[in-house]
């Protein structure tokens, strides 16, 4: 098919853009179908959305060679706005696979009353009122939920293939705006509304800062395409050098927010607690994939000439982020309401710090090959993190069905009541900690550590080593709780409700995450080999 632009006929490679397009088309189809389906048939929307995501992921197979591009300049066919290279295909696989697991995880949540407690663990009239409001508004509207999830996934799949700043910003907002609504979709829940508002205001502020940075970069270089920006920044007019540096820094600030890097991380714990558990899982994985892929594109492809500016800045951000996240996770009290989700929220901040380390190392690389290897470490770590973190959230969703307050202490004796769920959660936590049998977690951390050492960032490697030791404590503490003897009888107010049958979709989500984690642990070197050729 062709499109007329500026008097020139430009071909459009529909296969290259198929993955995000299929997700977007499925979103529109769900929205229209929701108007005509009776309430009893609403679960069909979830299965249709899941099928749409599966089809979008399958369409990545013809793109695995990474040699397709489209929306190129007619005057210069090598300068394109969309490029389905190896990096884009790998991240799209992560995004669509993560969205697919999220869809399976969401089935029971969307079509049942929400089980999350609206209070913060305090007793009293206010907590009772909030709990009552949550019970009244716990049911999620199916059509809106699936439309928003598919729309966000479409934007997230578009972003890693974007090769100009305009498309990059549009894709980022398409991925983010539906996420705001997903967080606040539980009607009548005070925590959900507050979380959505905080997430929205913080993100809009970061986007405004990033757009100012993009405008500065455009003013200094005269182009929005990443390849042309890289060439122009190499010999920018000295009078515009300060403007270019300011543009680079402000652009990075916007992506630092999306990655939950310190000091732009303050929205994470409250947003994760206020959001439905599947949405929190989605933000922890796909939200981070969006932020990190955008950060990689602008730093390595657009701003290599200013590596001396963003390299040290990202290194400092990595050290601060992993330290703040792990220390805050260490301080979570087991008896506090929603402490399980809060611990995973702060853990995700700490993991974001590890993911930033290879990006910082790329700023110190002597060649494009070294930079590509460093970025491959981030991609490999992200693949491991996506599988096991989604699995951990899936088990949390399972436990919250009978323990709505979501305390860490509720997991005591889980092995006695649900042995397979306890074994799966233990495996996921050990992967995040980097301990056997979670070999993929250990391998990913060693790879990231090596990237820092090879780049001469010895101080950052030391900070990472200290943080890994800190994280071991709270991961192992949670793992040990799973296998302790069940606690004695509690007071009636805190007693768990009777166990319910586990929905097949939730079981499938836990099982798929566990199988993927075990498979990755069996051949971790293949992950790095697959990811190392993903850029440049």
TrEMBL record:
Protein name in UniProt: NADH-quinone oxidoreductase subunit N
* Keywords noted in UniProt: Cell membrane, Membrane, NAD, Quinone, Translocase, Transmembrane, Transmembrane helix, Transport
Q: What is its EC number?
A: 7.1.1.-
Asked if the record carries the keyword Zinc, the reply is: no
Q: Which domain of life is it from?
A: Bacteria
- The kind of enzyme this is, by top-level EC class, is translocase
Task: Please list the reactions this protein catalyses.
Answer: a quinone + NADH + 5 H(+)(in) = a quinol + NAD(+) + 4 H(+)(out)
- Record's function text: NDH-1 shuttles electrons from NADH, via FMN and iron-sulfur (Fe-S) centers, to quinones in the respiratory chain. The immediate electron acceptor for the enzyme in this species is believed to be a menaquinone. Couples the redox reaction to proton translocation (for every two electrons transferred, four hydrogen ions are translocated across the cytoplasmic membrane), and thus conserves the redox energy in a proton gradient.
Principal subcellular localisation of the protein: membrane
> Where does the record place the NADH:quinone oxidoreductase/Mrp antiporter transmembrane domain?
162-470
What Pfam families is this protein classified in?
A: Proton_antipo_M
* Self-association and partners: NDH-1 is composed of 14 different subunits. Subunits NuoA, H, J, K, L, M, N constitute the membrane sector of the complex.
Kindly list the residue ranges recorded as spanning the membrane.
14-37, 44-63, 87-107, 197-218, 243-267, 279-303, 309-331, 343-365, 371-399, 420-444, 456-476
Q: What is the topology of this protein in the membrane according to its UniProt annotation?
A: Multi-pass membrane protein
Family membership: Belongs to the complex I subunit 2 family.
User: Which gene is transcribed and translated to give this protein?
Assistant: nuoN
